[in-house]
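Hi L.,

You mentioned the student needs an example of a multi-chain input paired with its predicted structure. This one should do, with 532 residues in total across all chains.
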Amino acid sequence: MSTPFYVSPQQAMADRAEYARKGIARGRSLVVLQYADGIVFVGENPSRALHKFSEIYDRIGFAAAGKYNEYENLRIGGVRYADLRGYTYDRDDVTARGLANVYAQTLGTIFSSAAEKPYEVELVVAEVGETPEGDQIYRLPHDGSIVDEHGSVAVGGNAEQISSFLDQRHRDGMSLAEALKLAVQALSRDTNGSEREIPAERLEVAVLDRTRPQKRKFKRIVGRQLARLLAADGASTEAESADGAEDSEEE
Amino acid sequence: MEANTRGTGRLPAAFLTPGSSSFMDFLAEHQPELLPGNRQLPPVQGVLEAPHGTTIVAVTFPGGVVLAGDRRATMGNVIAQRDIEKVFPADEYSAVGIAGTAGLAVEMVKLFQLELEHFEKVEGAQLSLEGKANRLSTMIRSNLGMAMQGLAVVPLFAGYDLDREKGRIFSYDVTGGRSEEHNFAATGSGSVFARGAMKKLFRDDLTEEQATTLVVQALYDAADDDSATGGPDVARRIYPIITVITEDGFRRLTEQEASELSRSVLQRRLEEPDGPKAALL
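Structure written out for the whole complex:
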């Protein structure tokens, strides 16, 4: 008969955090930036079908790094939460803050319950406001904490480096093309500081565009429009906002 | 984990259980009392009085489909509302117009819109037009209990089929029976008169503008002979709701456009009260 080894709570939590962080670090990082007309999500994703970004509700978008099946589960939970809440009350009563709280509670409970393995995910919940001041971005690490972000945020394995790169260069009121290019620049930097090329077809890009006439502001940017934005001269801001309106939906 | 969606606690297990992409299925499992079809109605003597919406018409044209409705809701012989809306976008490429018990109809549309949107978000792709039409069938069927007590909802569903590249119209009966209509269709109390008008005016080479004029003519004829259908109300500036769905998606005519269309039809009717004449042979 052996007595179980004593593990201090601090040690147990540190081990779980370590486990989750390692899992998240295996995936590629992604960034979420504010720009003049909304919020842009940019990540490297070789898959066209398995998305890292998606629409949760009218003005709310979701981004996730880490283990696909776990964040997909959370994403669908979020869509169900938002749709049920909007159906019970009103569409305006669905907010990013409410959703972020629910995610934080969910992740936190899972993280600290000994019966479950911690989720290896890091999420971003963003809501586009009527004006840039109304934009909200929340970052949700694996342990259920919640961070209110402004301007730019990166999640995933290499997040710290990318964040500091973005912090130095991101400014308010960037055009979509400028923000997109900055994001790609940030993502192309490797851990050791060297740069590599990310071809357009490996990029997943989506926006929450406050200028869309529809109630639903989430839109994926693909194909020709993406190529045009990447090629665009950073200064030409009007050209691409006009594109956004005319381009047809992919989904 | 309690099933609390109103507070800000952890997501209940049902939310994180992999399952169907249907919002209705999720509700049925998680909060069945919120589904309109699950509502228990006490036994009612005779017919329950509630505002009713009346005439909805639809017509296809090469490149799309037009769906329109009058604005009147009646309760017995009383006009309950003059500016009710009975035609709604279902999603980007389809619309639904509803005749029958107004309260239930509006609720059904709300759930139907949500059902399509939910599927689209979860799956990352739209339902086929056929799939959307079938979903609506299921919803009407779940309302059968109330329909038997006089609270029927009879929609007309129209959309642009992206695969077949044309506009299509589906009509329903109270039991959820679905049938595809060719060229034109109408539902509601004034529908017989509207259908007569459309039968005489329809051609298969209509332009979008001619198709929208056609539905206004049909609604005028419905209002002319059916007391529960309202004609264009120039004094109060209440005009029919006219929507057009094409490859470019759903569009509702602005009030300005609807008013111009209605006024020009009215103008002609001052000269010819029975409207345009079809050839005898």
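You could point out the following to them. Chain B touches chain A through 28 residues (CB under 8 Å). The mean pLDDT of chain B is 92.

Best wishes,
N.
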